[in-house]
Structures are given as structure tokens and as C-alpha cells.
Design brief:
Low-confidence stretches: none
Number of domains: 2
Structural class: alpha+beta
Order of helices and strands: EHEEHEEEEHHHHHEEEEE
Mean pLDDT: 90
Helix content: 10-25%
Oligomer: single chain
Strand content: 25-35%
């Protein structure tokens, strides 16, 4: 892997996007400080300060977009859960890819497909993990219940490089298998960590909100929602 470490950047995803032509497959962009990170639906990712994880992975597996790429963030959510479990924690997944500890969000994931005109250039998989945060920083995150690794461990977490090493090892260990077999290869592990199935939920789509019972996750990673008397397969959205 080609690992690039930066002191300060507006966004590791933005930097990766601007330089995707020059970087090879599996290039890792990491920054100590990120000033303008963002999550899904263009939401801002609040910078908890130095000592947290801001990272993007450039992936160029193929010259065209493949269906399995839509599940990469779900694959990464499982990978993050495995890493947190090494610290004795019990992470959960809120569909599609939020990672929670005791119901509080600790990590965010964003995947972007990059094109030049109609030519597919690759994927940028962005990951933000709260490794160290204090109450003042956490209070900046409006309308979200969040946490950080140092809070859950009751001590400052000082080895970000070790966390990155664990994360990249877990990600690439089964990466090729995931590309070949798709979401089905992680489906059981993903579902076992889900905290919402069988419950009444609200799902925010781009321009509307659906309400109903979260029945299950299908082989494509879609949420099957029972809305009134019909079942709806949802491929993109957020559980509120």
C-alpha cells in the first residue's frame, strides 16, 4: 500500500479526488487535522481535533463501476466493528453503515465513485473515527448522539497508527473475497451486529421519509421496510 500522511487538509476525500489520476490502487490518505470533512448527503463531519482518524482509501479494482461497490461502506462498517471488538467493546451497526457504541455514533463512512466525463476513475472510501474527544468537542455535533474511543475506554487513546494498522489489515484481509462474493459474504456478520431489525423506524431518503417495521436485510444489503401492508426495498437512506 502507498500511505500518504498529511498534517492538515480540508478533506482527505477531496484531496484523494483531486489527485486520483496520479495515485495507484490502494493508496491511503491520512491527515492529522481535517477542516472540512463531510458525510453522507453532504453533512459536515465535525473535527474532534488532533488524535482522531481522518482517512481515505483510493480503490481502482476495475475500469468500470461494479454493483458490489455499492456495499463497500457496509463492508467497512463490519471491518470497523471487528477492530472495536479487539478493544473489548460491543459495536453495533445502524443501517446502512453507521457504527455505534452503546447507541452512540463513533465512526462515519463515505464512498464516492469518481468519473471523468463517462470514464470511471475509481472509488474513494472515506473513514472518520472519533479516537479522542472531550465534552466540548462532542457538544459541537448537533442533533447527534456521539462518542469516542477514549471515552469508551476511560483513558486517552494515544496510538492512532496502531488503530490504522488494525483497520487496514482487517479491510484488505478479505477484500478480494468480498469483491468476488458481494454482500452475501458479510451478510450474517452484518445482521448479527444490527440494532434496528424488528423495530419501528423512520428512514430518511433524499426527499421524503418512510416509516414502518425494519424487517430484514436482503442479499443486496438493502433494508426491507414493512410500510403499511407492503414491503419496500430501500437501497439508500438513513435510519433516523
Amino acid at each position: 500500500m502507498n500511505i500518504i500522511c498529511l498534517d492538515k487538509i480540508n478533506s482527505t476525500n477531496a484531496y484523494a479526488k483531486e489527485n486520483i489520476e496520479k495515485f495507484p490502487d490502494k493508496t491511503i490518505i491520512s491527515a492529522d487535522i481535517q477542516t472540512n470533512g463531510r458525510g453522507r448527503f453532504n453533512r459536515n463531519w465535525v473535527d474532534m481535533g488532533k488524535g482522531n482518524l481522518f482517512m481515505s482509501i483510493i480503490l481502482k479494482h476495475s475500469d468500470s463501476f461494479e454493483a458490489v461497490y455499492s456495499n463497500l461502506t457496509q463492508y467497512m462498517s463490519v471491518v470497523l466493528c471487528r477492530v472495536f471488538e479487539e478493544y473489548g467493546l460491543l459495536p453495533e451497526i445502524k443501517w446502512p453503515n453507521d457504527v455505534l457504541i452503546k447507541g452512540k455514533k463513533i465512526a462515519g463512512i463515505l464512498c464516492e465513485a469518481i468519473y471523468s466525463g463517462k470514464i470511471f476513475k475509481g472509488l474513494i472510501l472515506g473513514i472518520g473515527v472519533n479516537l479522542n474527544a472531550d465534552a466540548d468537542r462532542l457538544a459541537l455535533v448537533k442533533d447527534k448522539v456521539v462518542t469516542a474511543l477514549n471515552i469508551e475506554l476511560s483513558r486517552e487513546y494515544e496510538d492512532k497508527n496502531l488503530f490504522i494498522e488494525k483497520l487496514l489489515y482487517e479491510f484488505f484481509k478479505n477484500y478480494d473475497s468480498f469483491l468476488c462474493n458481494g454482500f452475501a459474504s458479510i451478510k450474517d456478520e452484518y445482521i448479527n451486529r444490527c440494532n434496528f431489525l424488528g423495530k419501528e423506524v423512520k428512514v430518511q431518503l433524499y426527499n421524503t421519509t418512510l416509516e414502518g417495521e425494519a424487517l430484514h436485510i436482503n442479499n443486496n444489503g438493502e433494508l426491507i421496510l414493512k410500510e403499511h401492508d407492503k414491503e419496500v426495498a430501500i437501497s439508500a437512506g438513513d435510519i433516523l
